[in-house]
Amino acid sequence: MTHPGHPHFSWREGELHVEQLRVRDLAREHGTPLFIYSKAAMLEALAAYQRGFAGRRAKICYAMKANSSLGVLQVFARAGCGFDIVSGGELERVLAAGGRPADVIFSGVGKTRAEMAQALQAGIGCFNVESEAELEVLDEVAGRAGRRAPVSIRVNPNVDAKTHPYISTGLKGNKFGIAHERTLAAYRRAASLPNLDVVGIDCHIGSQITQSDPYLDAMDRVLDLVDAIEAAGIRLRHIDFGGGLGIDYRGDRPPAADALWAQLLRKLDARGYGDRELMIEPGRSLVGNAGVCVTEVLYLKPGEQKNFCIVDAAMNDLPRPAMYEAFHGIEPVSRPAAGAAGAVYDVVGPVCESGDWLGRDRSLAVQAGDLLAVLSAGAYCMSMASNYNTRPRAAEVLVDGDRAHLIREREQVPDLLRGERLVR
Ligand code: LLP
Q1: 0.85 exceeded by the pTM?
Q2: Cβ(35)–Cβ(383) under 8 Å?
Q3: Is residue 289 lining ligand 1, measured as CB closer than 6 Å?
């Protein structure tokens, strides 16, 4: 049986497999908590976008904040992707993983002067500028470095992405982008600054978007601006529509990437921009359902109001439930023996917070020592992991067919103490 939404994760002979390998064996070898990714699942998710853009001039810039582990970046760099970064640290990761700087775009509302200089030095493809103040600073930094900075302005199209408020970014009240009404003036200013080259326009309206309409609305608004900007004599080489496409966590039904883009490209063609260079910045939809986190049951704690299943992964490894009350499927790695007693549990970690839960009210037939897989854990889990409670971060394995590559060693406590000093 294949797991819905997890094409390369399947149960065979009662054991969860990632591609050709048994999850139980990987957990025994590498310990828990353990992130396991399927390379085929990542490439399959990418292929849906590539099909959608067949015959077009389009660049897929993986939004690496979703999962920035070097081994994951390497998969996308080798597959020809560019990268959407949001810090100088992410740029260093791209370069370490073999990505091409010219295929890097730099988003984010708070780029520092040092990060701008670093990115100019590396020769990145585009700065996605998010405020008028940032335009001025970037011009100054580029001037000092004796370089020209390629820029795109991030438009806030004021459309509702109909997603969780914490991951909605395209509304007026959000900190992101330049308001639709101010965009033309910002482009005029950018075009007048001596050390900037205007190359594009971008928008990103939110994350875990499961409907097409917000994208279609945002595209119309962005293209209205392109009309106006080009009428003012400023030519835009590319249009970047951001990321945000959702995945199936719990029966969510986002459009497939190729189907969504067939719809969007029809609009683009109808409005006369079909031959323009396109860029997108998908993150979650490329990696989210390509990973699971394996955790061991430490204790069962029955209670009057609630039963708790206490596992060795926690909110520091999997922060999404605590941060967004997000749902992740939780399944036993081995099918329980027929007749095993089941109960309804809150699955919680060892961290000293009531917010440290991974799943609520889950029916499970488990006992201490069993392994559970937290599903859809490829995006925004390891990249948001912390060391809270002085918990070293988990190890990561990338499976490719019948081979497992350890792409991140389990962190050790001395790694956590490094750089700290006692007061003399
Ligand atoms: N481009 C920009 C400018 C972004 O800010 C983001 C995500 C993306 C692209 C990629 O979006 P995606 O395709 O992954 O939806 N931690 C949250 C998600 C935060 C998303 C932040 N920005 C979560 O776990 O749901």
Answers
A1: yes
A2: no
A3: no
